[in-house]
Design brief:
elongated; alpha/beta; Rossmann fold
Length: 139
């Protein structure tokens, strides 16, 4: 629906940023199925289908596009007491990498943007372009 609205208003979509985040602060022993499903639905499922819908539109309209997923340092770094969140962000990282390879030949590129800390009032990000074999750091 969001992509359809953007195309209706602007005629095309060239970029989408998936920035979904919810956490339960629950351990592997204490997480309920409801908590797990909520985290996965918001942090991973919505990003997967948002990517799919946007990529289909970018390919259909021609000219490709860019899909950026905002993830977390916890895609790699464990955070005890927040297992579902870490799992969802690790899944987002693999989605970005795999979809980036799949979509590259159709001129849709994927990128992951990871807030990795702060310097005073500046947030430091680490970004990787998937499918291109290149990476970069943004400050």
């Amino acid at each position: 629906m969001l992509v359809e609205q953007a195309v209706s208003k602007f005629g095309r979509i060239d970029i989408i940023v998936n920035n979904a985040r919810v956490e339960t602060r629950s351990s592997v022993l204490d997480t309920t199925e409801e908590q797990y499903d909520q985290v996965m639905a918001i942090n991973l499922k919505s990003v997967f289908f948002g990517t799919q819908i946007a990529a289909r539109q970018m390919i259909k309209q021609g000219g490709g596009g860019r899909i950026i997923n905002i993830t977390s340092v916890h895609e790699d770094w464990p955070m005890p007491g927040n297992t579902p969140y870490c799992l969802s962000k690790g899944g987002m990282r693999m989605l970005t990498r795999t979809a980036g390879v799949e979509l590259a030949s159709m001129t849709v590129s994927m990128g992951g943007l990871v807030p990795v800390g702060s310097l005073g009032n500046q947030v430091v990000f680490s970004a990787t372009a998937s499918g291109s074999g290149r990476g970069w750091r943004v400050r």
